[in-house]
């Protein structure tokens, strides 16, 4: 489990490896706000519990330009890791199927790589759609593509503890926290169901 790093303003920045967080603490560049007393690290001069949340002592300016870029990581999170045509979650894909980025209006027909023109599609649906518009071959989107709430997505693709989630809620509000926990819960539920189905299949084979 990593450590949540907060800016001096208490804005959640990222999840760091614990070793990196400790280096910032030992170098007096950050302070520990929450720690796991069951895990202890030692330096030459002190003994420190594994940090769960640290706060930088000096404010760091973080550019936000990257947030408008379409990436598969954020796209899949926006769509709940679910094909927007057949509705299957990534945990329900079989064999060599995988999630892909589909351009609703194909690039070959003038479509752009923008949030309102991309949707998550399983490889099967993407191959079927090819260079057509969905309605041309009887396919329909589950949801109209829109530009996402980046704050929700940035944290939806990370694993956080209940203690760390508290600080995200303190800065961004309960609505964002609820959204990221929804992503996490859905992903966990589908992963558990997939693991159960896999175990059941192995039992039947044996």
Instruction: Give the rounded overall mean pLDDT.
Output: 85
Tell me roughly what share of residues is in helical segments: 25-40%
Our Rg estimate from Cα atoms comes to 21 Å
Indicate how many domains the architecture comprises.
Answer: 3
How far apart, in Å, are the first and last alpha carbons? 35 Å
Tally of individual helices: 6
Strand order of the largest sheet: 2-1-4-3
CATH class of the largest domain: Mainly Alpha
Major sheet size, sense and barrel closure: 4 strands, mixed
In N-to-C order, the SSE pattern is EEHEEHEEHHHH
Name the descriptors.
single chain, DNA Binding (I), subunit A, elongated
What would a concise description of this structure say?
The chain has 206 residues and is of the alpha+beta class.
Structure, described:
With 206 residues, this protein is α+β, with helices and mostly antiparallel strands. It has three domains: 3-56, no CATH class; 65-137, DNA Binding (I), subunit A (Orthogonal Bundle), CATH 1.10.30; 150-205. The chain is 35% helix and 20% strand. The protein has six helices and six strands. It has helices at residues 18-26, 72-78, 123-129, 150-156, 162-172, 174-205; strands at residues 3-6, 12-16, 30-42, 47-56, 99-103, 118-122. A four-stranded mixed sheet has the order 2-1-4-3, with helices on both faces. Strand 3 (30-42) and strand 4 form a beta hairpin. Helix 5 (162-172) runs antiparallel to helix 6 (174-205). The longest helix has 32 residues, at 174-205. The chain is elongated, with a radius of gyration of 21 Å.
